[in-house]
Each structure stands twice: as structure tokens, then as C-alpha cells.
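Input chain follows. Return C-alpha cells only.
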Amino acid sequence: MDDTARGPTIATADIPRPSPSIGFGLTLVMAIACGVTVANIYYNQPMLGIMEATFPRQVAVTELVPTATQIGYALGLLLLVPLGDRIERRRLILVQIGALVLSLAATALAPDAWSLVAASVLVGVTSTVAQQIVPFAAELAAPSRRGAAVGTVMSGVLCGILFGRALGGGVGDHFGWRAMFWLGLLLAIVTGAVLAAVLPRNSPQTTASYGTLLKSLAILWREEPDLRLATAIQGCLFGSFSALWTILALQLDARYHLSAQVAGLFGVVGAVGVLFAPIAGKIADRRGPHAVIGLGSIIMLASWVVFGGWGAIAGLIVGVILLDFGEQGALVSNQHVIYALRPEARNRLNTIFMGGMFVGGAVGSAGASLAWQLAGWPAVCGFGGALVAVALGLHAWRRATPKPGSEAG
């Protein structure tokens, strides 16, 4: 393909590339930073009732807060993450964390519900700094260790997703919702200070204008079939993952008469799946990512069989661990696939991939809610399993029709 067709890669040939350099300590710091920053978009979910009590005359407006945060995150993926290919990543990450600190302060100080909604959008936008860190880890890692490095850093993202709700609910219950955002602000400041001390500088990957970067997203989607397939597969798998976490509290209450706080503790159980991310990355480095994607999908399908057939708390625990193991392994391996496509466009590839993944998550949550209303837990299990089956079908089709130059595995 000539340089004209590759709009996203213009003016990159003469830009020096950093030598791969990432050790365990730096990888761990980046993973923790991802968890701390991504958790900010989940704090408000368990605290929504407490927020509504603060603004009793604006309950309908306050109910928009979780949606506003997710919309902000989507906007950040689209508008900010591509900048990582053009702006020196260390500086961009630190500036975005600074903006996150200001957004959290605005949220904690919100005088009314509309101000809270506006500040929540900004929190969502700036929390996408986590998606600046992941491609940076992929760039710093040697190709033979890229899967392991991305797997470890993505463990932080999953921890933020799983623990964010539990932390928000606990702090909100005991100290109020404003205290949670002040705590989030403090955590963001500490994270920024640590990253300022340890992150290396890098050279921008392109000199293309901001408008060209945004236009190149469509070009990348059109020209990279592996990107389209990885995004579709992970969208289905994350939809299945989201289906479980959307309905779990309702099932615990309806079947076992357990509180929402117990549902939050299941997030701690689910975090066991974090352990699989570095392992999956190492397997992807040795055996190729496609084998791990298939294995992860099969494990997720098995989890829904356990959910549907093992009618006890123990079954839920085992199912949650399997679901998170499989989802995390497939996620790391799909990222392994996309980051190998165009090294100079990793942030833009991540924008497309993560955007598609979160769209899948939204579809999974909505579909699970509908399934629950129509036929309860069995329908949710069928829906979650069906999403995984679609992902497995797409994966099998990819393996059956290999593309010239595609990665074996």
C-alpha cells in the first residue's frame, strides 16, 4: 500500500523511535495508574441514590450522571486518545491527569444536579488517560514481551472496573458521595506524581494534523480487516461480561436475598481473573494471540453454562471467575493483534478497538436488562452465552480464512 493510501502514517518516516525499555516495576506502575484513572467512571454508579438524596428536587437530572460519565468517556476515546500518536505521550498523560484532577474537584463541589452532570461528562472525558497508557506500554515493550506487558497493564484496567464500584459504594455509604470524589482526586494527584517520576519520554509517531488523525480513524477501519474482526469479537465478549455485571445484583436479591453490597464483593472475586491477563499475554507471545482468543471465548461460554446449571452461590463464584478469566485473556490477545498492525497508529487503533468494545458493553447491558424483564435469569444466561457464541463464530471464520501477511497463531 502506498503512502497516499495510508493517510494515518504521513510524515512519520523521519521520526526516531524509542528503543523498547520497560521493566516489571514500570509495568506495574502503569497498571496501577490505569486502574486508578478508569475507576473514576464507576464511582457514581453505586452512589446514585445518595446523590439523588442531595438534590431531591432534581432526581430526574441526577439520574443522568452515570450516562453522562459514559458519554464523556466515549468522547474522550474519540477526541483525546488519537492525540497520543502526535503528542509526546508522557506529557499528554500528565496533562490529562491534571485535567482529571480539576474535573473531580468540580464534581465534588457541584452545587446542583446540572453542574454534577456537566462535571461527570468531564470526568468521563479525562478518565480516558488509561487508554493513553496502554498503547504506551505496547510501544515500550519488546515485540517478544508485548503481550505480557499489555496483559499486566490491562489487569489494572480490569481492577479499576471491578473495584471502582465497590470502593464508591463503601466510601459513599460511610462518608458521602462528595468524599469519594475528593478521594479520587487525591489518588489522581498521587498517580500523576508517580508517573511524572518514572515515565520515560518518547517521540511522537506522526506529525499529521489533529483533523487528519480523526479522519484516519475511518481509513484504519476500512483498510484493516483484522482490526474490524478484533473489535467485533471483543465487543461481543465485553457485552457478555457486562450482561453478567448488570444483572448480578438483581439475581442475588431475587434468588438469595442478598444485598447490593454483596454484589460489590463479587467484584473482588472477579478480580481473580486479573491473574490470567499476564499469563494470557505470555501465551500470546509464544503461541500467537489467536489461540488465546479462542480459548478465552470457550472459557467464557463455559461460565454461562455454570451460571445456568449450577443453582448455588458457589456456582456464581466459579462462573464469575471463569467469565473474568476468559474475557481478560481474549481482551489482551485481541490488543496484541491490533497493536501489531500499524505501530505508528497504536493510539488510533486503540480508539477504534476500545470504542467498539464499550459499544458492545452497552448492548450487553441493555440486552441483559430486557432478558431479565422477559424471562429472568435463564434468559440472561442464554443471552450472555449467545454473545460469546457469536464471538466464537467470528473467530472461527477468521481462522478459516487467513489473510496474507496476517499473524499466525
